[in-house]
Amino acid sequence: MLRKVLGSMVASLGAVATALYAYAFTRASSMAGLAEGIGEDPATYVFHWQFSTGLYAALGLALLVGGCLILARHSAGAIVSAVAIFLSGTASWITSVIGFARYPFEQPNVVETIILVGLSGFLLLLFLRRGLWNPPATPDKSLERTRER
User: Which residues, in sequence order, are CB contacts of 124 under 8 Å at separation 6+?
Assistant: First the structure.
């Protein structure tokens, strides 16, 4: 039961994140006017916008794949999802430390990072304790329910 609920939630969140960030990626040309309004180079602003939205769309796709792997009873799904969530929580800090982040949408947020790192820790714990929620299939057990008479 936990596997179905968790896999469905992770896959749906990944699908929604991928769709929203892919849409935002395609709207980058309309962001050039915003950059001119704040006195920035439009090409640089659009590049930063496309890099950020492309990165988060790829992480959303990894989250979708991780959720589907959880639903398919692969224990690697939990680790794929944990890594995707951890990277989305720390990506803004990494870009800030290396000096890439220039605009407000690229700045790190402490609360967001704490929540995402906590969720990735939960999924990592589930991966480490995968025997509790993802028991190995044995060849002598049927996947169909049998009726007891």
Answer: 78, 79, 82
The residue segments making up the domain with residue 127 are 2-133
Q: What is the pLDDT of residues 15-74, one digit of tens each?
A: 999 999 999 998 887 777 776 767 778 888 888 889 999 999 999 999 999 999 989 888
Number of domains in the chain: 1
Amino acid at residue number 30:
S
Within a domain: 146: no
Least confident residue range of 43-52, 83-92, 125-134, 140-149: 140-149
Is 47 a member of any domain? Answer: yes
- Secondary structure letter of residue 29 according to DSSP: G
Is residue 149 domain-resident? Answer: no
Give domain status of residue 41, yes or no. yes
Nearest 5°: CA angle at 108, between 105 and 109? 100
Say how many C-beta atoms besides its own lie within 10 A of residue 148's C-beta: 4
For residues 109-136, b (16+ Cβ closer than 10 Å) or e, as one string? eeeebeebeebbeebbebbeebeebbee
